[in-house]
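Much of our argument rests on the idea that a fold can be written as discrete symbols. Part of our work consisted of pairing the sequence of a single chain with a tokenised description of its backbone. The amino acid sequence and the backbone structure tokens for this protein are reproduced below.
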Amino acid sequence: MEWLESLGLLGLFLGSALAASIFPFSSDVLYIAVLATTGKGVGCFLAATSGSWVGSLFTYWLGWLGKMEWIEKWLKVSREKLDKQQAKVQKYGVWLALLSGVPVIGDILVLALGFYKTAPGWTFLMLLIGKILRFLFWNLIVGLF
């Protein structure tokens, strides 16, 4: 994490992309550290938002590639449970992507959106809005916006 921090805005972009994909760490700590050391509110906001969005696009794509048979076989999730989850995803649709900025559950939702093949264009837009809201929140908390 220190290595990413030492890269400044580039490290923030990369770390945010990784955190929004398959790597289990929080970009919030990195964001606050780079924000505090650089004082560049707009630069940090743009780097983290775009990096996190790119990472979410990758996660969505991984979900899109998934198959029901794999989930049943390797993760031991029943078809009935998958059908229930699919019904929930279909009920709320692309609006779930707005929650992509919520730590922990956001990435799981993005994976599910890809797996259940929500409309890519609208999903990508809602993912971007979710990421904007997340990092806007941090800038407002820290007072650099």
Observations:
- The CA atoms of residues 19 and 109 lie 14 Å apart.
- The mean pLDDT is 90.
- Residues 2-142 form one domain.
- The radius of gyration is 16 Å.
